[in-house]
Amino acid sequence: MARNTSLYFRIVEGRNLPAKDVSGTSDPYCIVKVDNEVVARTATVWKNLNPFWGEEYTLHLPMGFHTLTFYVMDEDNIGHDDVIGKISLSKDVIAAQHKGFDNWLNLTRVDPDQEVQGEIRLALELHRDAQRSSLHCHVIEARDLAPRDISGTSDPFTRIIYNNLSAETSIIKKTRFPHWDETLELSLDEGDDDDDDEGGSVTVEVWDWDMVGKNDFLGKVEIPLSCLHRSPPLQGWFRLLPLGNTEDDASGELGALRLKVRLAEDRILPSVCYQPLIKLLVEAVISPSKVDEPSPLTLLEEVTTAESRQDVAMTLVKIYLGQGLVVPFLDYLNTREVHSTTDPNTLFRSNSLASKAMEQFMKAVGMLYLHEVLKPIINRIFEERKYVELDPCKIDLSCSRRISFKGLASEAEVRESSVGLLQTYLSSIMEAIVSSVSQCPPVMRVVFKQLRKRVEEQFPEPENEDVKYLAISGFFFLRLFAPAVLTPKLFHLREHHADTRTSRTLLLLAKALQSVGNLGLQLGHGKEQWMTPLHPSILCSVVSVKDFLDKLIDIDHDNVCEAPQRAVFLPSVIVKEGFLQKYKAKGPQLLTRFAFKKLYFWLSSESLSYAKSPSWQVRSYISIASVCAVERVDEHAFQLQNVMQVITQDTDGELHTTYLQCKVTRNTHSIQYPITHTYSITSPDTLRQTLQASQ
């Protein structure tokens, strides 16, 4: 039986952050650490003290963790990035909230003495005889210590303290993985020893030695003296802790973060144990019960909360994709949903299991299709960065100076220019969509075909003629394309969030696209009457949308369902990319640190590829499916830090070992990030976890 710890967190937004730049603003981004490992970095939101990120992360932590920490940074083009503040959450605090929490939390100040990491290996023992009593502490080694020097290393030494007595090891220069193998001895007064048998403790501190100035604290371990009276002697790895646990929240002066965090700890049984459940789920769609009768899927919906329904839907979609039964699965859920709906205006408007399953299905199989259709237009909008505004209350004439070379444009000129730009962008998006029938994944088209059939059966009346279109467009436009236009970064379409100007353009376009998805039925009924100039373009698009949806479902059902859906429709996505040092072992030979070559790597859900440079046309590939293990290599093997070995197996069953060194880099914003995971290749642990997750 295996245990799996899954940590879900969403960095929603920040508020009232302090200004760090001379312009009176900041350029905030977040770095997330699990214990000592950087696991995520959000995009930078430029010139904003109330940034919105909305980025979600899921981490699978096989060894568990102690602390989850969020650092808010201010990015600077020159010099070091400024630290704004942090939020630390212990595992116990997160686990206490069984359903997770969604709260605003004040940022606390960052104290260097609290920023410790790593572990130390010790063996402690009390020696007593008739004449004297002594404490022996065998300081063996430490690992993953915090870098305190400009070189990215430290000069660590260890100090043992008990009852005002102390002893120190030697100093090991320029390393974060020191090996001392020294025994420190403290001669203890017998009387003091007896007095402190119950409550005394031994403190082991690790420090970074500095030739100039005071030494830097690296962490400490406190061991109750009572533990040393036991047999056998106390020994093992001990986690280094900060000087104290008090954190000053600065009374909100540093601002706050809104975070959603949830911890799930599961016990994973051997796969054979899940076969009865898989069989039950398969039978539920192969031999479905009557619409009004209960089934395993309807029971699942009844026992799940609205918060967990999305996770349940995602898991079910993956199961049925793997079984090649995603079409009958979704048809079963949609049939029950349609049958239970009496008012067509409320069809699929709730967060039911059917709605969530359709949404997760489109994201699973349609992401590559979404990219092909939208990415050229989204890139164009980002590159042009035009000022667009229709709301009279928000028009800023000072931002419109590029519109007119004769001085500031009038409000009417700004609105006229904005309408023209939005019509052009909307027309480009709609042309790309309506001409993309052949690009849409066949399994997606079949699901829409089945959905339309069920809606026509339930609402055959002439006055409900548009319902068959609304059911499909509600998913296609309102739950996939419009959200992707609104926040392109969350759908892999852009590396960074849009700035304020571009974000406003995308918001207005998303509103227009939403109206198109509603077939223009709600135009003129809302509060945003300033959108009226776009109504003709929206209504014109509705005609082409209906024709597009008719063509979209014109597909042979039987041929598609026989295809291996999981392999065909799940796209390969670049998870990380950046420079690494590589060496491929070629038989038994002495390896040197100079054997490594600097190459540019791309890690996707299918392969680890590399070339001489990012623009190099010829690439080599390591298939994720061929990776047997990814292991960290001890620092002493090559006298290099952050080295790991990737063990692969070829078609003949022969094993091959490739060594990779991850260089720590400050320029993390130059790395390309994925849809909801934003971190650079800076450590072997991070890349190892990603490789294992990809498998």
From TrEMBL:
<dbReference type="Pfam" id="PF00169">
    <property type="entry name" value="PH"/>
</dbReference>
<dbReference type="InterPro" id="IPR039360">
    <property type="entry name" value="Ras_GTPase"/>
</dbReference>
<dbReference type="InterPro" id="IPR001849">
    <property type="entry name" value="PH_domain"/>
</dbReference>
<dbReference type="GO" id="GO:0071277">
    <property type="term" value="P:cellular response to calcium ion"/>
</dbReference>
<dbReference type="InterPro" id="IPR037776">
    <property type="entry name" value="RASAL_RasGAP"/>
</dbReference>
<dbReference type="InterPro" id="IPR000008">
    <property type="entry name" value="C2_dom"/>
</dbReference>
<dbReference type="Pfam" id="PF00168">
    <property type="entry name" value="C2"/>
</dbReference>
<keyword id="KW-0343">GTPase activation</keyword>
<feature type="domain" description="C2">
    <location>
        <begin position="1"/>
        <end position="105"/>
    </location>
</feature>
<dbReference type="Pfam" id="PF00616">
    <property type="entry name" value="RasGAP"/>
</dbReference>
<feature type="domain" description="C2">
    <location>
        <begin position="116"/>
        <end position="238"/>
    </location>
</feature>
<dbReference type="GO" id="GO:0046580">
    <property type="term" value="P:negative regulation of Ras protein signal transduction"/>
</dbReference>
<protein>
    <submittedName>
        <fullName>RasGAP-activating-like protein 1</fullName>
    </submittedName>
</protein>
<feature type="domain" description="Ras-GAP">
    <location>
        <begin position="308"/>
        <end position="518"/>
    </location>
</feature>
<dbReference type="InterPro" id="IPR023152">
    <property type="entry name" value="RasGAP_CS"/>
</dbReference>
<dbReference type="GO" id="GO:0005096">
    <property type="term" value="F:GTPase activator activity"/>
</dbReference>
<dbReference type="InterPro" id="IPR001936">
    <property type="entry name" value="RasGAP_dom"/>
</dbReference>
